[in-house]
Batch of 3 targets.
Target 1
Amino acid sequence: MDKFNRFKIWQNKNVRRSIPFCIAILFFLIMTHLDLIGRAIAFLFNFILPVIVGIVLAYIMDPPIRNIEKKFSERGTRHARGKAITIVILIILVSLVLLIVAVVPQVLSSVVKFATSKTSYHGALQQFVDGIAKRHVDMKTAFSTIDNMLDKMQSQVQDRLVSGSGSGGRHILNFVIDFILAIYFLADKKRVQRNARRFFRLSMRDTTYERVSSVWKRCDRIFIKFLFCEVIDALIVGCANAAFMLICRMSYVPMISVVAGLTNLVPTFGPIIGAVVGAFVLMMNNPIHALLFLIFTGIIQAVDGYMIKPKLYGDTLGVPGIWILIAVVIGGRVFGVWGMLLAIPIVAILDILIRETLLPMMEQRKIKREMAAADRKMKNSEETGALELLQALQKDAQEK
């Protein structure tokens, strides 16, 4: 059967004319049922969320496992992958235990202290306002606004602590399930990878498969390196903040240092948010400490931007800064914090796909169009030359 017979229906004018109306009706139904569609997507996402988190954890744990497995294989050790998985799991568990024992109690203590110290903050603010009032400056409105803000923050923090303690067991259970799924994914990685490669080899041409495989490997290297460099950079910034605050004898060192490290993961706007939060908390206790903290944050961000990050990343990304800023803004507006976190690697991957896949395809199509145009021009010139030759022969024949 002719390969075009299956598309014969599209040659019908009535079918082609009805397509825009069908698209318009579908768009209208989607827009009028956005709530239902959103709930359905949310239900489906929550249903498969453990699998997604397990795949993400396995993806993050895979690079160190590969390095350890490679070293074991070079020594001729049996069951190299199983031993590598066991070592990485033990390292993660020990790190979690140390984090829970050393850091979490300090952070919780700082949060509880901040939530229950509203009275002392009220007195400090009252003294501050009285001092300004002596200079004939009206600060009653500002004081009332800050006082209401503190009341709201105190109630929110206390509610979060109560609700967090109630749902902590459920989150721990979900994490255990996700971690177990990640271990199974890692254990069966080679078999899944082998089947996937076989499927794509059978469904693609060899040249296409090699091109896709090369682009995927580069994207994988970029994303993994970006992820680990971000974590290391956040640890450096958080530890530097903690050391500076301890030297200056500031309050709430664990809480503010953790906030500074976590917000540093968010490109561009994260350090600003961390600086504002830390300065606000310190200002309630000692305005001088808040000023010193802001100055140090500016210095550490300058050092981080011009020395630490270039040293960590090197020339891995190579994406213009304006595209990173646009991606962070759009990602944050559309997907929230996760959109801001993943904006840079996604832009880097899109840059690779455009430069190494889309642009070469467009160049090949342009070359084909130019060759076709040259062939048509040559054919037309040959036809014109043949016609001129025929006319010349006819003219000679008539003269004779």
Target 2
Amino acid sequence: MKEREESSRDTVKEREQSGRNTVKEREENGRYTVKEREESGRETVKVREESGRDTVKEREESVRDTLKEHEESSRDSMKEREESSGETVKKCEESGRDTVKEHEESDRDSMKECEESGRDSMKECAESRRDSMKEHEESARNTVKEHE
């Protein structure tokens, strides 16, 4: 009977010891699990922060690139408009010069006609010339309007 009591005491002691060991192991495992989770959480936060920074940088670069493209496109458009308007002005000037030359030649011709035809009065000749000048002025205005 003593043996049984001793054996059962030993068994109880072993179980208590085993239970204490199990509790200690679980506590230690729990501590490690908590530490692992904390470390994992910190790493996750770091990764997300870095990813967020990278995303912000990418967006800023994209916006800068887009602005540069718009500025270059705008400059190119302005240059094209300036060149185009310069060409239009040149065409108008050339056309105006040609028109002035034509009118001057026409005036000379009409003066010659006046002199040759021997019109009775200089008044008629002057009136004819005024009419001719009005026609030339209207023609020049129309030419300028066409080029505008």
Target 3
Amino acid sequence: MHTIAAPESLNTEEQDVVRVAARNSGKLAIENRSDTRGHAVRAGNEKLYNPQNPDYAKNCCEAVSQLIEMQLLRTGDGPKQYELTNFGWQLSRKLTTKSNEEDQNVSHEEVLSPTIPTESIPSVSANAATWTSSKTESPEALISALGLDDSFLPEEPSTLEETGLNATFVEDLILKIIQTAGSLTGKQISDRICLRVAIIEDLFTNLRKRQYVALTGSAMLGDHIYQLTDQGRERAREATQECAYSGPAPVPLDDYAASVQAQTIRTEKPKRDRLEKAFSDINVEPEMLAKLGPAISAGKGMFIYGPPGNGKTTVAQRITRCFGQNILVPHAIIEDGQIIKFFDASCHVPVESSASKLINTSNQDRRWIRIRRPTVVVGGELTMDSLELNHDPISHVSGASLQLKSNCGSLLIDDFGRQQIDPTSLLNRWIVPLENRIDYLSLANGKKIEVPFEQLIIFSTNLEPSDLADDAFLRRIPFKIEVGAPSRQEFSKLFEAFASKSKIECTMDKLEYLVSHHYDSCDRPLRRCHARDLLDQVAHYCEYNELPMVATTEILDHAVNNYFTAMSGKE
């Protein structure tokens, strides 16, 4: 485990270099000084030098070497170009929170470019290497300002060894990608497999020596266009038969397991304000929030039960909002040569924003994608097979199981007890994972792998939990929360809210008529969904008959007859 250096362990020049890099997207370079006397460190529009101390510029250049040894800087894409590592970013935050140090001996040469608005250039205070600017924020500071979780920020690998992948696998991945596209530049291939150009350049040299690829032209910035030779096409066909995967390079299973531990919901303990914000778009009584709060904070799973139509699913789907909003997940995982496609657009929502683009400038590993914490919902279609890896015998690529996709989020088993599988079989399948937070899955080659089981399991059911599971399982799901029928007052609030939203006029006496004539008189229980559904009936009736959007007693009668006649019993 790498230990972040303490600010006081760095000398003045080393601290100055870290600060100036952090204020300029983490990048710097060593360039010739304008006075032709040696070299100086430059970051963006600033060069570090001191007219009163001729050794200062040289010391800053030497500081770059020291910071590389301390793993706070790394080499960049060009000659004499460098960038902060994740450890360097973390140290820069410590430096900015330090109390002000008196250091009057350093001045900075401002190199103003006519193409850069002067308001975007950081201003220099008397305290050396300390800037104030609303335009230039470090990606790490931006993460913090936006409330994004930086507990796990995988650093982009700079060597093949750091990827955890072997050369043969990456070479085959490159050949399959070129085969699909026809011809690509090195930069385009780098973008598709999400690895740095510097990593794949050596592999291209090897592929050319083996006459698998050939150069067919030049591209911008010294890049080349690559195409498969006949031998390369044959090797690509063989590689595709072995495994058809041709997306972003996968991450090792151990790296994924570490990411789950760093981003698990169990490290968060949401309080009342978080719950109120998460449920602000629906009407939830304070008593219900009081029940949900401890269950969500514990993160150990829950039963949400009660009669149908009262919002159990709606409540369950909002629970994930109570935790940190975003996490990083891999596009794919590799273990023992087997590929598991992880990212699933049907349940993983990417976070696409200017913030995520800026975060990438802090050298984040592009094999990971930032998403909202997942809420995976499965209902009657749930089978035992969906709890295992889904092996495709043609592509030889596996799909992640439901519980794997839901790690660091929530897994909602909706309408539990009405699945195709016996509830007891499902509960028995999860007794050990719920206890140990570890699950075991089988790869296509038969190997058993250990994976994290770190999500909030929510069972939503119309049945009593005691009718579905034995005591041994119920002990492992410690919270059982009943979502009962609404009170008359709550139903009135819901009806008024939906009427306002639908722009339907409904006076209090008409609402009283509805409840007394169609609920009280026939002992029909109130349901939260009835307010929305009956008003939908009113709206459609008025639209069809070209009537004002007004809920009269006659139209309410019509809505009730349409809605309840075909429904069983009094529901």
